[in-house]
Amino acid sequence: MRIGLPIKGIIKATIFKHFCGGETINECDDTIKKLYKGGVGTILDYSVEGEDEEQVFDDTRDEIILTIKRASGDKAVPITVFKVTGVARFSLLEKLDAGTTLTVEEEAEWQKIQDRVLAICTKAFESNVPVMIDAEETWIQKTIDLLALI
After folding, report:
1. Helix-helix angle 141-149:104-126, to 10 degrees
2. In which band, very low, low, confident or very high, does the pLDDT at 3 lie, cut at 50, 70 and 90?
3. Which of 6, 27, 124, 127 is deepest in the core (most CB within 10 A)?
4. Closest C-alpha among 67, 65, 83 to residue 119
5. Is 44:67 a contact under the CB 8 Å cutoff?
6. Where does residue 15 rank: exposed (0-12), middle (13-18), buried (19+ CB within 10 A)?
7. What is the 3 state secondary structure string of the chain?
8. 1 contacts: CB under 8 Å, gap ≥ 6
């Protein structure tokens, strides 16, 4: 992608359709209905990750919550999923897993991460929608496990 080849377009025109129902929740509706008609449930997964900006993390949290709202009361969408790296800076997760002391700013950032995960899980609970926290890299797994248990 750095050299300017139209990789995104090539992927979307080929393998994307085999693995993704769409780029938005609404685009996924037809696929959800077709799969359910064949006895297959859908997992809505907003899988943005690897960003470094707080606003992106908040936006990702909000999109994940929208997937939970979409799944609520719909047997065709029996579970939702998210990656913690979509709502948290990867390097901070690494630092936490390594047990390194955090700066005051990082402590505040860690609290925001916990708040985002809690907001997602609270909405899932209120909506009676199971939520799965997707596995991550082994070198941040202790922190992911901690968040799952909070």
Report:
1. 50
2. low
3. 124
4. 65
5. yes
6. exposed
7. CCCCCCHHHHHHHCCHHHHCCCCCHHHHHHHHHHHHHCCCCCEEECCCCCCCCHHHHHHHHHHHHHHHHHHCCCCCCCEEEECHHHCCCHHHHHHHHHCCCCCHHHHHHHHHHHHHHHHHHHHHHHCCCCEEECCCCHHHHHHHHHHHHC
8. 7, 8
Distance CA 53, CA 90 (A): 11
Burial of 41 (0-12, 13-18, 19+ CB in 10 A): middle
Sheet of 43-45, strands arranged across: 43-45, 79-82, 131-133
Contact 82, 37 (CB under 8 A): no
The answer to whether 81 touches 134, Cβ cutoff 8 Å, is: yes
Q: Supply the pLDDT for residue 49.
A: 81
Chain length of the chain: 150
